[in-house]
Amino acid sequence: MEENNMEELNKTNRLTITVIIIVLVIVTGLITFRRPDVKYKLSPVESLALLNDPASVITPEQAVSILRDSAGKMVFIDVRNSIAFNRGHIKNAVNIPVRELFAKNSKATFRDIEKAGQTAVLYGETQQQANGPWLMLRQTGFKNVLLFTGNYSQLDITNSDSLTRLLPQLSETPLIDTAALKAISAPVAAGKEITQPAKTEKKVVAPVKKTGSSGGGC
Amino acid sequence: MNKRYLLLAGIIIALGVGILFMPAKDTAKQTQPELLLAAIDDPSRFLTTDDITDRLVKKDPALMLIDMRPAAQFHAFAIPGAINIPVDSLLSTSAQEMLNQKEMDKVFYSNADVTSDQAWIICKRMKLQRIYVMQGGVNTWFSTIVKAKKPAETASSKVLALYQFRMAACQYFYGSPEMAAAPKAETDKKKVNVVKKASGAASGGGC
């Protein structure tokens, strides 16, 4: 009789403990649950459309004129590391290295810029460096962020020829002309005038295997 | 029936119903922004034109070169063996199918490495595997492989070996240069060198 009672008691205790444990697990789960701070606001398709948007980039010419005249509206963000930043940076630029882009302080900076009605311009050593951070900010919902399409060295307005200091192979302008490829014995002139490629119409992908080139040789 | 059993059952059922109404998580389909940023900060996605050339010459079957430029530019000049997926149609079904081949190393390139890198970021977000970017793009390809600059004769053997490699690769891709013109240019150059005893300033391309 007594044994039976004990068993009953044990069972009840165990059940209580189980209930308590389950409740504890749920409660700790709810307490530690953290919504992700940064979320995508643009779908991949929207992000892709962004790449062809001339309104979300800023050319070296535009940047230099802004630096000369209306610096107040634009906040330049330097995405290089702090060593490069300390060695030299443009006036009033804010240093936010790539890996600290989503840190609390950085996000606060971008929000402040947005509140003040200003626009952030991201620049790096090359356009390529600022490219990733720019795309990440735009994808996660920061709208007033522009990408500078040149190199840091071009922003040096104390130097008058800063605009011509474009490293040609770093820009998306095609530098190959097939004529040069065919008459390959003549070296490509260094200061050749570069023409902007005509924007081609959107095309449904039709992957074509390129077999061999049109000869020419070097 | 113990009341506690009912309580337990109630909790479990409530949790089950909760899971049923949970919003679909997109982590399975997308790389989270923080992780993607870390990937962007990691330069290991960049392959040099020499790496690519080496793999092309060795006929690496796992290499897949993706040309991100508009079709017109692709037809004018492209790296041998490349496939054209203009960046505008990156997210089309056929392009995604092409890029989803898990056993291939997909190397993106454009004229420089800006457009290709943007495409890389979007593809990385969509969790595509084994994707890379060719550093410098076609412009660098053209200036390093097709128009390899002759290094100074005093350059280190490493530099000279690299030049030899590029020249050989160029011949491999585009055929040997005209037999008549090349040796002549070579001797001319040598003469100049003898007279000047200069350390051989890079006297323009031509192989």
The CATH architecture category of one domain in chain A equals: 3-Layer(aba) Sandwich
Give the overall shape of chain B, derived from the CA principal axes.
Answer: elongated
Question: What is the residue-mean pLDDT of chain A, rounded to a whole number?
Answer: 77
Task: Work out the largest interface and the residue count of each chain.
Answer: A-B, 67 and 83 residues
Oligomer state of the chains in this structure: heterodimer
- Adjacency order of strands in the biggest sheet of chain A: 1-5-4-2-3
| Strand order in space, largest sheet of chain B | 1-5-4-2-3
- What portion of residues of chain A is helical? 25-40%
Mean pLDDT of chain B: 82
Question: Overview of this structure, please?
Answer:
Chain A is α/β, with parallel strands linked by helices and 218 residues long. Helix content of chain A is 38%, strand content 8%. Chain A has a domain at 47-160: Oxidized Rhodanese, domain 1, CATH 3.40.250. Chain A has helices spanning 2-32, 44-50, 60-68, 82-87, 104-115, 127-139, 178-182, and strands at residues 57-58, 74-78, 94-95, 119-123, 145-148. A 5-stranded parallel β-sheet of chain A has the order 1-5-4-2-3. Residues 183-203 of chain A have low confidence and may be disordered. Chain B is α/β, with parallel strands linked by helices and 207 residues long. Chain B has a domain at 33-142: Oxidized Rhodanese, domain 1, CATH 3.40.250. Chain B is built from 9 helices and 5 strands. Chain B has a 5-stranded parallel β-sheet. In chain B, helix 3 crosses helix 8 (157-174). Classes of the chains: A alpha/beta (218), B alpha/beta (207). Chains A and B meet through helix 1, helix 2 and helix 6 of A and helix 1, helix 2, helix 4, strand 3 and helix 5 of B.
